[in-house]
Fold these 2 entries.
Entry 1:
Amino acid sequence: MSRVVILDYGSGNLRSAERAVRRVGADVEVTADPKAALEADGLVVPGVGAFAACMAGLLSVGGDKIIGTRLAGGRPVLGICVGMQILFERGVEHGVESQGAGEWPGTVERLHAEIVPHMGWNTVRAPEDSQLFAGLDPDTRFYFVHSYAARKWELDSGLPGQQPKVTWSHHGENFVAAAENGPLWATQFHPEKSGDAGAHLLENWLRSL
């Protein structure tokens, strides 16, 4: 049984994430303890609310260093919603720019859409070789609730066979719905709120650990 830590840094649907990951067969702990977070087979970084507030919470528990150390050792990390957004270099909300964890280049910005937030079920366009979405129908819908997203993908590893796998969705414009980049995977939607589809996706992540 894989051991998974849900990183508790004061943001995110911690118990929902805990239940969802436990449902698919993992041994789950919710904690901010660095040792547990570093030693777990997988680390989940949830997040809801404002980019700047989530980033401040992450820094307060040394979460940026935990994520960086895990990734340097090739150990899996899964970001969810704002937990995905703070992996980018920066976020801009109400004209204020905040620094992110900087694992990926790029900026998280407000969606250009008539209705914001983007709230409800939506489809995604995943690459054919995606591990995260393996076994899921292209018409599968996932649950989104957000006003901001990465509207561009700026990382290109340039190494054959190692290019990041980027999944897109559309609400007013295209935005990054998920990404798989080595041991670092993330989703803009909430797999823990996406029913059987979300459970299947989490199972795919667990298989990668």
Note: The chain has a mean pLDDT of 96.
Entry 2:
Amino acid sequence: MSFLQPVGPVIDLGVNIDHIATVRNARGTVYPDPLRAALLAEQAGADLITLHLREDRRHIKDADVLAMRPQLATRMNLEAAVTQEMIDFACQVRPQDVCLVPERREEVTTEGGLDVIRYFKEVETAVKQLKGEGIRVSLFIDADEQQIAAAQQTGATVIELHTGRYAEAEGAEALHELERIKVGVAAGVKHGLVVNAGHGLHYTNVQPVAAIRDIAELNIGHAIVAHALFAGWENAVREMKAIMVAARLGVSLGAQ
């Protein structure tokens, strides 16, 4: 056994393929194919495939989700806004996981966590409908104990902590944000939740987050797509997974 092939689960990598679709849509072609990217990512060590079906369909489209669902060998993690259209579509597709996220049309990327307290009834209703179809539900939230407690009360069993502020910070501020994530992870565990994390993570800043023992899964997309331009898609996936596993096991690989 090597640290790259440990016995049993260490930490899962969800590869977000949204920006494969972004490149495709930029020229209105049928390539690069998000399905092919997903299957190759699985072969390279991805533990699940994450994709966000946005209201404006700026990258992933309905047809991508429908084509991918029966083909994946791992898990599909479908990110979706808390709207009846998206919840009904998710119930039609029935991915293994649905992560409910906040969404604004004008944002470039998701800018923060879902405000579960403010929209509790809407989130609770969505969680109930999804769970009724046998779908595991995750809520994408900030590392705030009140939001985490509210997430547990909706009936969701998983949270994904938003790591964007940590990813954008430097120096002492980054250390402060990392500590917030650690406190959030502990709060999630205290409330009996599975704790995942993601947003803005890349090949250097991922290490301290991956080292947090109780994080089950990291979802990473843009950095892997960007690195693949130079390293190749499968290599980019393998390198990210290796860095994550090494960090969890206390082995530093450094930037690849």
Note: The mean pLDDT is 93.
